[in-house]
Amino acid sequence: MHRKHRARRGNKGDSRQNPRVVARPGLVRLPAPLLFLPRHTGLGLLAVCAGAIGLAFTNPGPEDYEEFAGERLSAALIEELCEPDGLPMVLRLIIRDCPGVIRSQRSVLGRLAGSRTRRRNLGVFSVYRTDLGGQALLGSWQLPHYQTLTLAAAGQFVLLRTDRLRREDP
User: Is 153 part of any domain?
Assistant: First the structure.
C-alpha cells in the first residue's frame, strides 16, 4: 500500500505529465516548442523550397525569350502581311514566297523583339513586356505595331496579352 501511495503522489507532482505544474517556485514549465507544428510540416516546407529553387533555375532568360518572340512574331507577320491586302503591290510582285521570307528572318525578328522588351525577373518567374513595330519601311509602309505581355516560368512562355495597335492617321 505504501508503494501505491508513492506512485500516485509521483504522478500528481510529475512536471512531465502536466506542463503547468510548478517545478520550482516561481517557474512554470511550458510545453516545448511553443509553436507546435505538425510532424510533416518540415517535409512540406522542404518541398516548397525545392520547387521554388527548381523554378528559379528553369526561369527562361532573355535569349530564350528572343527565340520564342521570333517564332511568334514571324507567325503573326505571316498572318498579317502575306494576305492579298497585306503588302503593297510592288512588294507582292517582288516577293514570291512571303511566308518563306518571313520565316527565314525569325532570328532577326527575335533580336528585334528582344531589343524592344523589358524583363521583370521575379526569381521563380519573369514577366516580359514588348512594344514592337510602327517603324517605317520602304517609304510610307510601316511594320504593324504590337504590344505583348508574356509570363515565363518553368522553361515555358505563356502569352498573356497581345494588342495590335492601329496606325493613327493625322
Answer: yes
